[in-house]
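REQUEST ID: PR-0412
SUBMITTED BY: lab tech R.K.
PRIORITY: routine
TASK: structure prediction, single protein chain
INPUT:
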Amino acid sequence: MSNVIVNRVVDFLKKFPPFSFLSPELLTQVAKQVDLIYFEKDEFLFQKGEPAKKYFFVVREGAIKLTDIIDGKEQTMEFCDEGDVFGVLALLGKRPYILDAKANENSLIIAVPVAVFDKILKENSQVSLYFASGFASGQVVIRSDLSETQKVRSLLGKSAQQNGLLLFPGQASINYSQPVIQCYIGDTVSRAVAKMSEAKVGSIIIVDEDNFPQGIITDKDLRNRLIAEGLPYDTRVEKIMSHPVVTAKKDLEFSQIYLNMVKNRLHHLVFTEDGTDQSGIVGIISDHDVLLSQGNSPAVLIKALQDSEDVHEIAKLRNQAEGMLIYFLENELAIDFIAGIITEINDTIIQRAIHIAKSRHSPQFPEVCDTPFCFLGLGSEGRGEQLLRTDLDNAIVYEDVSASLEEKARGFMHLLARDVMDILFACGFHSCPAEMMANNPKWCQPMSQWKDYFRQWIRKSDQPSLLMASIFFDFRAVAGKMALAEELTMHVYEEISKGKIFLNFFAKNALLNPPPLGFFRNFIIEKSGEHAEKFDIKLRAMMPLADAARVLILNHQVVGINNTFKRYEKLAELEPNQAALFKDAGKAYEIFMRIRALEGLSSSSSGRFIQPDSLGKLQRQLLKNAFFPIDEIQKILRVRFQLDYFGK
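STATUS: complete
OUTPUT:
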């Protein structure tokens, strides 16, 4: 490449990150090895499903659109303008492209070989975090302002979030009911009800002598048109059936079936041989069947959970949520979005479990069953970060009652906690080895006892107390009376303000886990035991950042932000002089969450222990560079809380 062209490439690239992070000498080396490629309008750069190329792209002139085929139509998911970087999947591992890239107009593209960036990624943490932040936030196009990567989502991300709240691609298969329970025109309601009861279904199709559908009777019809009207059970079925029947062909696309039911306000849709009511019945689907089939639709899945009274069905729905999590991770949606959805699903399961448990035990405890209480999520669930069904940390706080009702209130709350935990175990969640769960009587207590717990932990500040504080200070109200959690939070801050030295002890405790790289920048791995030669991503990478964020946010007396990467976002806002570091720490934490979830799903484990050799060369380097903020954040703790002098 001639010097004139190289200089023009340098002048262009230096205006945009990650190239703006490079020294002039290094940028010149990069510019000498890039290719300039011209694409005419509508020409493809790459197509969905193709293996990732050995280079990524920067738009020099023109515009590139990233598209996908949805419901048979091409939809533009993102536009790439001058300076935008895309196609970075080549940097993040060997996996196919997830979208088509097509020139929206005649365009000049800079193709940067991945090999050029190998050394740069190892030596320049800014460049590494730039690409890693795009990986963590799920962006397909990485924009020029690194500071906005947490806030700005690509159109693909927005579209996926919005569409996912109703219909998300990749739904599970729909379970059609067949054979269809039916009876004839002229039969009595008594006969129809007997058939429904025998088959344990909530509807029956009424057919004529040719077995063509004429109407439908549901439980609702029986309530409103028979019982409410005082009609006898020997009434003929055609008197109370709903008609005409809306029919369709069974081989319709899901979207057509769904829209048909929505348009006609249907709870049931009957499938016939030719799609009309003048042919035989081949199946039936209910709106409940639709809910159960849409495992990759968050809103539909949550709605199904909210309507369910059956523990086995709740467990089945939570299993479907695992499939949804896999889909989200494979399509690289933003971690904060994924965590928000999974947290909402987990919360809904807990709320349903509480409803079931209360309904079961309230009749035996009429004096105390209405005692206000709050179910608290702790640990990763309290922070809204529990993507996998790992062990649970939780507790119950309830209002103090009169001395005469204390024993009954305690008995009711303990039964409630026991049943809620049993339902969560049935849904695949693991028991906490340390028994930090609501079904442990120690962690199911009235408000006065909880205040005493926190008072002791804060005032003693010994190692056991600091351990309890690190677990319980991330509590979050999941269900029940939220004001109880707020009251407990205010108590915590009041106690900390009375003895501020607690934060010094708490900060020192946060330094127990040093940065996860050894002297020669090798992963610090477990030396022995079941997980020998593996890297503990929770202990070595996630906990140092989570512990530091907790201390710093407590120091600022910020209420209502439990999530680790959101805490770092808030800290960046509160401390502008450290904003870049805090934002990098938040991005690093999202990267660790994603890697752990992927490892857990692939190995059917908690994802905590990772074999470093299983990671690709560049992935290992990206992970190592994501460790950089840990050391810097811990330096801030040492200085701010005078830890080099404290406790000596």
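NOTES: The chain is about 45% helix and 15% strand.
REVIEWED BY: pending
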